[in-house]
Amino acid sequence: MAKITIVIPLYNKEADIANTLESVFAQTHTDFELLIVDDGSTDGSRKVIEAQDDPRLRLIAKQNEGVAKTRNRGVAEASTPWVAFLDADDYWHPFHLEQLATLINRFPEAQWAGCAYEKRLTPSNIVPMQAPVMKKDSGWMGPIETYFVESLFDTLAWTSALAFKKHFFTDLGGFDPAITHGAGEDTDLWLRAALQSPLYFCNRVSARHNQDGSNRISHTPTLTRTYMDLDRYEPFSDKQPGLKQYLDLNRYSLALQHKMAGDIVSYKSYRSKIDGASLSGKQRWLLSLPKWLLKLLMRIKIGLEKKGQNLSSFKG
Q1: What superfamily in CATH does domain 4-218 come from?
Q2: Structure pTM?
Q3: Residue boundaries of the structural domains of the chain
Q4: CA angle, 36 as apex, 110 and 84 as ends, to 5°?
Q5: What is the C-alpha separation between 77 and 81, in angstroms, rounded?
Q6: C-alpha–C-alpha distance, residues 143 and 147, integer Å
Q7: What one-character DSSP code corresponds to residue 183?
Q8: Whole-angstrom Cα distance, residue 260 to residue 116?
């Protein structure tokens, strides 16, 4: 089975990193090196790492530069052909790394590989990802030839459930550090990867996205973030099934965020590039609502999630 490097970017995750590490050390596939890249943490995160006693773990400390450069540094330091990512507040089921290793061995032509994941909205509200491939028998493995069609509900690729061949990641240019505070540096890389090579996927859930973790960069105010450029991928949409709709759904999400933040210029810019046929009636209706009503609906959505009910305009 393949030896894999695990890269964990760390920034002020003292409250979460111990649980994340516990899930790593519980993996049934034990042939790995673990690189934790500390991006200038100012809390007690490093002390948690330094208290660990495992020869597979190496701590790399650097100044604060953001998550893209931090992940890229981890890949550059990796000593194995394959690199798996795990965020410092997420969780792997014990068989996750074994699934990735099985994918890598079964499909030697694969350039990147991923597993299905679940989303923890609150401690008592955990939901599996939605995608057409999830309707296949559990444990299905194979190439995804229509990545964008499969990613119109939940994106197939998610950082803490992915592995890349190191040379493929490097050839793609890695995560773009010009995109800041979780404003699409992951989606931007998945787009570049999917345009070059199919994602090899296993539809058995093996990773958990803890959306209620502490100090999440996705909570950074909208107007202080530098967003990915979706327009650069528009020329490929004629030859890529589902890509136009995929781009428009991302524009839809960004348009809503900017309207709620009061940035009407950016809202109108995103909105003007969306083909109405890409959206559902519910999505078009939400785009038309005033800022105050969108913010009210968002508060209601968060409150319902805490009670175990899930609302999403991306559901089919």
Answers
A1: Spore Coat Polysaccharide Biosynthesis Protein SpsA; Chain A (3.90.550.10)
A2: 0.93
A3: 4-218, 229-306
A4: 10
A5: 11
A6: 9
A7: S
A8: 31
B/e letters for 258-285, b = 16+ CB within 10 Å, e = fewer, are bbbbebeebbeebbeebeeebbeeebee
304 phi and psi, to 5 degrees? -70, -35
Tens of pLDDT along the chain (316 residues) come to: 679 999 999 999 999 999 999 999 999 999 999 999 999 999 999 999 999 999 999 999 999 999 999 999 999 999 999 999 999 999 999 999 999 999 999 999 999 999 999 999 888 889 999 999 999 999 999 999 999 999 999 999 999 999 999 999 999 999 999 998 777 999 999 999 999 999 999 999 999 999 875 544 444 577 778 899 999 999 999 999 999 999 999 999 999 999 999 999 999 999 999 999 999 999 999 999 999 999 999 999 888 877 777 767 665 4
Q: Sign of the C-alpha dihedral, residues 235, 236, 241, 247?
A: negative
Residue 126, judged by CB atoms within 10 A of its CB (0-12, 13-18, 19+), counts as middle
According to DSSP, the β-strands at 162-165 and 125-128 are unpaired
